[in-house]
């Protein structure tokens, strides 16, 4: 029987903390249109700074991502596939910040933090986590932890807003949303769409195939070590994601 994919293992082995990270009361209130403009604006301000920290993390990964010297190796290199993904991620992050700014202007939202004291604990955790991105020296797949951090945060974000979208379907939309409709008309559809899901799944596939290839090359003995490394990074992201949703 084929061994379980690493990303599937992470999702299934940590189902309870994953649910806490993706099914918060903040998301339920968003689905019902009950978040005020001030509450949403402050959260979006934190999310903008998360984007900035994420961009820095990608830069750190790019600084140590080795690419094949041989042209023949390019097509099958997991490093090249990861490079393609993070390059697209950079473009997406810049586009997302513009979307925040434009939508905030449309709905009268203020998305600047009034002070650093307004930073969510989750944002602070992500800033530390993203700033710590570095190669795992002398280990198989030195970029594994970085890729897991990126996959985990993207997957949590996607599933959180897909959950909110499902909850939204249960409550309907009577047009009197506290935020003027910004979340249910603009943000939730943007953060739960199929293009985003495919983008996240691509990174998961890159990770799973790279791990499977290393096991094929080096034997089953390397599996446990890669799982331990991945689980440590996964845990850090779940803690940060849970703390990223404001308490209501």
From TrEMBL:
<dbReference type="InterPro" id="IPR016084">
    <property type="entry name" value="Haem_Oase-like_multi-hlx"/>
</dbReference>
<protein>
    <recommendedName>
        <fullName>Thiaminase-2/PQQC domain-containing protein</fullName>
    </recommendedName>
</protein>
<dbReference type="InterPro" id="IPR053261">
    <property type="entry name" value="Polyketide-peptide_reg"/>
</dbReference>
